[in-house]
Write a structure and sequence with these properties.
Layout (H helix, E strand, L loop, with lengths): L1 H10 L4 H6 L4 H11 L12 H9 L38 H5 L4 H4 L26 E6 L11 E5 L4 E4 L5 H7 L9 E3 L5 H4 L2 H9 L9 E5 L2 H8 L11 E4 L12 E6 L4 E7 L24 H11 L15 E7 L9 H6 L6 H7 L4 E2 L6 E2 L1 H4 L8 E5 L4 H4 L17 H6 L5 E4 L3 H4 L2 H8 L5 E4 L13 H13 L12 H5 L18 E4 L5 E5 L5 E3 L9 H11 L3 H12 L11 E4 L2 E4 L21 E6 L13 E5 L5 E6 L3 H19 L1 E5 L11 H11 L8 E5 L1 H10 L7 E5 L5 H9 L9 H8 L24 H17 L2 E8 L7 E7 L2 E2 L5 E2 L3 E4 L7 H6 L5 E5 L7 H7 L4 H11 L3 E5 L19 E3 L4 E4 L10 H7 L20
Parallel strand pairs: 3-4, 4-5, 5-6, 12-13, 13-14, 14-15, 22-23, 23-24, 24-25, 30-31, 31-32, 32-33
Antiparallel strand pairs: 1-2, 1-16, 2-3, 7-8, 8-9, 9-12, 10-11, 16-17, 18-19, 20-21, 20-34, 21-22, 26-27, 27-30, 28-29
């Protein structure tokens, strides 16, 4: 760091230009020209290029790292292990350019997986405790407020934990409410699809990275589970999935399934599974070009009524069922509660007090101590009480409900009026319904519910009541405080009131009350609602753990009490944003309660010509997720939403929980419109914190546009992503077409536009990337190896139709280009440029289009600097603080100062820093002295083009808002040394 400071002082002197050209610095000048190879130098940034070079030329020290999966929560299998202890974090290279740029070559080439021992995650064997057990089921409200995923259910025992369904956001919810994921033994899926299993990949990676040895869980599901496992293998280490187990026949087997599968049967609980297929399934009319040949998902009630007469003419075994159609009803049965032990009877039978008493209580017979007889449990125990029974039910469509008449496995659990029948049936205590309101509100479903007799029904499937209540309370609190300070950049969350929701056409109009017998108790599930099973005296509902609702008014009152100066700060920001108190290029100050905050406006950059006459309906950047590695209480993982308003939307990266974040920002209805308006999704690399929310977004878009003529969505990403999507589409049709990032590089696009297609092997993109000036990957360099592996190039000719489609899509969206460029992080990692088309104002003047550059995950590199030249906005990752350069190099990330230097060197007008390590839970460490055109990103932050000139002016006030925050990671399950990858 001392070297950087010295260089900064050196080149900020009046003689900096002379120093650059003096005979004393020929080596430095040569290195700069060799490093950047910029044909059109940046005259306005020549002072800053040496500073950037200073960061590049820092020589990394050797970093000892034990071989472990603990650093690979969000790492692909091709770069899944840390450096082995004693090995250097950087390989020595004879290549001059590689020497001048600090980065981890082994990681960039995907070779770091060989540095540690192969890991075999073992299941922990827990000693069960069937006596005096505490047990309950609890609602983990994943997705209940935004209706993007199915809620999860926790079945708790002293020594065992079971979770039913793992939708996106489960980790964030559990982290906030201190539910130890490390204690989970089994995960059961009621269906295998993005709605129920979207959070599973991230959860497996998190567990694999815990502690020194890592952890693993049993994952259970119907036979469709194999498709999900095959898809996850493309980016999750195999060791994390060796305990995935499926049950039941395959979806293409004929006949009706009426078998009871028993995955778990021990002295604590018996868990059985009943499989349900939809009675009717809509046969796809035509297969969309580029999409999976699998049929569309089962239809709902309205479609069923419309097509019933047609479908009844077809036999069930001829209907085209697809993976993902199978649903499961889980039956959780606790063993009977033994009667009370009578010591007097035991003594009369010749038993001495001691271990034999316990054996009898456990149900085992023992030999009498004083008599030549065997003493049986029934001899000394009172009458037994049947064990509690809980059902977890998920009927996604009415078509599944109609299959119930053919399922006899559930018959023993129904209630019958006659006394003789009652003795034969098993009494159910609680039924948790994950079925959507469109199903549960039907007469048929409620008639089925009434068959259980006196039972507690918990309705957990997307009930409207839950939409008004934020699930992630910590994140909602931060969003409210930010909104109070600066509503322009931090709009109010898009939650709707209940009356507003009921007025929406997309909301189910089912009956308000259930027409069930008075003996049936029906309640709407809430977060952390419990139903106690053991001790038997506490059997029933427990609302004590339900979080209290905190109003916006209360949050603001607490904020003002904590930081009185925030009132003046908010008023001052409002004045600034309305142009009422802005000094002309100078500095402005806020004085409140003896606090003076100086804004760094001594060298304000002139307004770019592309912003001339810009309106608020041109473009908006919404930072949906700004954290790295794994979701936390305050920051979701990476996703950037480009809102082009009437011209559509674009997603840059799509980490887990992206859909939920969209709904928190725009509301349920607004998010649906945003998803329907998607023009393209671009993914930077295959690490899970950048792409595991993709399937959920694509599945929702498929459903929303099911009855509307449309084209499959174009997904642009690295070639490894196609492996995942191709495997996943065997489970669930995602209605998309894939385009390799290599075909969207500047050189490949020029080849496409010129109509040249001479490379039949499909390596056009790779070869032209090398011609285009990235010396890092030049032919013959050691970095070239991971670009030219066998079978890696795609067929370039096959990409031409998709490039034609992409060009049309961009033109309709008012964009001139989407250009990918390689960066230094892991194999096939990219950044992207979005360039708007030029426009003409009312006087006929031509105004250039704006330019957005997103770095993806990367070390500072020449490709990124050149691509960012003249950018209107550079969105750059800043995973680590400035004092963690060695960590940044080892993991091929950037520090805050390095990201700013890249933007300065490229002449970017504004820089937005994002992708912060989760070790900084609320706000990262930064030095505002050098951030005169930079801003820190927060989840749901919205930056309109029209507000760009004001963006950095908010920074000092953000520091005021978080002035008392400690820079520590508040997650119990995150290893600070490996939180960012």
């Amino acid at each position: 760091m001392s070297q950087i400071s010295s260089l900064r002082l050196l080149f900020s002197s009046a003689n900096h230009h002379a120093l650059l050209t003096s005979p004393l610095t020929p080596k430095l000048s040569l290195s700069l020209s060799h490093l950047f190879k910029i044909k059109h130098p940046f005259p306005h940034t020549h002072k800053l290029r040496p500073l950037l070079f200073a960061a590049y030329s820092r020589k990394p020290k050797n970093i000892d790292r034990p071989g472990s999966l603990s650093g690979s929560r969000r790492r692909s299998s091709s770069s899944s292990k840390k450096e082995d202890k004693g090995k250097s974090a950087m390989e020595e290279s004879s290549n001059a350019t590689a020497e001048s740029i600090g980065f981890n070559k082994r990681r960039a080439e995907g070779k770091d997986k060989n540095d540690g021992p192969r890991k075999n995650l073992q299941l922990k064997v827990r000693k069960l405790n069937p006596v005096n057990t505490i047990s309950y089921v609890q609602i983990l409200g994943t997705g209940m407020d935004t209706q993007d995923t199915t809620p999860s259910v926790l079945l708790f025992f002293d020594k065992q934990r079971f979770i039913f369904n793992a939708g996106e956001g489960l980790q964030r919810f559990c982290t906030e409410h201190k539910i130890k994921l490390s204690k989970i033994d089994h995960i059961f899926l009621s269906r295998v699809c993005s709605e129920t299993a979207g959070g599973l990949p991230g959860l497996l990676l998190t567990l694999a990275g815990m502690g020194e040895e890592g952890m693993s869980v049993n994952v259970w599901g119907p036979s469709d589970l194999k498709y999900l496992v095959n898809a996850m293998k493309s980016f999750i280490p195999n060791a994390a999935m060796v305990h995935a187990r499926s049950f039941g026949p395959t979806v293409d087997s004929s006949g009706v399934t009426d078998d009871l599968f028993v995955p778990i049967n021990d002295e604590v609980v018996k868990i059985s599974a009943v499989l349900l297929r939809p009675r009717y399934s809509k046969v796809s009319k035509t297969t969309k070009e580029g999409s999976s040949e699998l049929d569309d998902p089962p239809v709902g009630v309205s479609h069923l009524e419309k097509n019933l007469s047609v479908e009844r003419m077809q036999s069930t075994d001829k209907l085209a069922l697809k993976p993902g159609d199978l649903a499961v009803v889980y039956i959780c049965e606790l063993p009977e509660i033994k009667g009370k032990f009578d010591p007097k009877k035991a003594a009369a039978l010749g038993l001495r007090p001691g271990p034999k008493y316990r054996e009898l209580q456990l149900g085992n017979s023992v030999q009498s101590d004083h008599q030549d007889i065997m003493v049986h449990p029934g001899d000394v125990l009172g009458p037994s009480v049947p064990g509690p029974i809980v059902l977890v039910v998920d009927f996604p469509t009415s078509s599944h409900l109609q299959e119930l008449s053919s399922i006899h496995s559930l018959t023993p659990y129904y209630s019958y009026p006659s006394e003789q029948s009652k003795e034969m049936c098993k009494k159910v205590d609680c039924v948790i319904h994950l079925s959507p309101a469109s199903v549960t509100c039907t007469t048929e479903y409620q008639q089925w519910m009434s068959r259980f007799g006196e039972v507690q029904h918990v309705m957990a499937g997307h009930q409207l009541k839950n939409v008004e209540i934020p699930i992630l309370k910590s994140s909602a609190r931060i969003a409210t405080r930010l909104n109070y300070l600066c509503p322009q950049f931090f709009p109010s969350p898009g939650f709707w009131s209940l009356p507003q929701l009921k007025s929406l056409p997309s909301v189910s109009k089912g009956p308000n009350e259930f027409s069930l017998p008075a003996s049936c108790q029906v309640i709407t599930a809430e977060n952390l609602l419990k139903f106690h099973l053991r001790p038997y005296a506490q059997l029933g509902l427990d609302r004590s753990g339900i979080p209290e609702i905190t109003s916006r008014l209360k949050i603001i009152e607490d904020l003002i009490t904590e930081i009185p100066e925030i009132v003046d700060a908010s008023e001052h920001i409002t004045q600034l944003l309305h142009g009422n108190n802005i000094a002309n290029g100078g500095s402005t100050t806020l004085q409140a309660n003896n606090v003076v905050m100086e804004e760094p406006w001594l060298h304000e950059t002139a307004l770019p010509s592309c912003l001339e006459g810009i309106t608020r309906e041109d473009m908006e950047i919404v930072l949906l997720g700004t954290g790295s590695s794994q979701p936390s209480k305050y920051r979701n993982v990476t996703s950037i939403f480009i809102n082009l308003f009437s011209k559509g939307t674009i997603l840059l990266d799509c980490g887990e929980g992206t859909l939920g974040q969209l709904k928190r920002r725009f509301g349920i209805e607004g998010a649906d419109e945003a998803v329907k308006g998607l023009r393209c999704i671009w993914i930077s690399h295959i690490h899970a914190d950048h792409h595991t929310g993709l399937a959920r977004i694509l599945a929702l878009r498929r459903d929303l546009l099911n009855e509307t003529p449309h084209e499959p969505l174009v997904v642009v990403g690295p070639r490894q992503l196609k492996i995942f999507l191709d495997a996943y589409q065997k489970l669930e049709d995602l209605d998309m077409q894939f385009l390799d990032c290599r075909q969207t590089t500047e050189a490949s696009l020029k080849t496409f536009e010129s109509g040249e297609n001479n490379d039949v092997n499909g390596s056009v993109g790779v070869q032209n990337d090398q011609k285009n000036g990235s010396n890092l990957f030049a032919k013959g360099s050691r970095m070239e190896s991971y670009w030219k592996r066998p079978s890696s190039p795609a067929d370039a000719s096959a990409a031409f139709p998709l490039l034609t489609m992409l060009k049309k899509i961009l033109r309709e969206a008012g964009l001139e280009a989407l250009i990918s460029f390689p960066v230094i992080h892991c194999p096939q990692a990219y950044g992207v440029v979005l360039k708007a088309a030029d426009r003409t104002n009312s006087t006929g003047k031509k105004i250039p289009g704006w330019k957005i550059v997103y770095s993806g995950d990367t070390r500072p590199c020449p490709e990124l600097v050149e691509a960012s030249h003249g950018a209107t906005v550079l969105i750059h990752e800043a995973t680590f603080e400035d004092g963690m350069v060695e960590e940044a190099i080892a993991r091929n990330h950037s520090t805050t100062q390095e990201a700013i230097e890249v933007g300065d060197a490229a002449g970017a007008y504004r820089i937005i820093l994002t992708h912060f390590s989760q070790r900084y839970p609320k706000i990262p460490v930064f030095d505002e002295t050098h951030m005169h055109k930079t801003s820190i990103a927060f989840d749901l932050m919205s930056v309109n083009l029209a507000d760009l000139p004001m963006l950095p002016r908010v920074l000092p006030y953000l520091k005021l808002l978080f002035r008392d925050e400690m820079i520590v990671d508040e997650s119990d399950d995150v290893n600070l040394a490996t939180a960012a990858i």
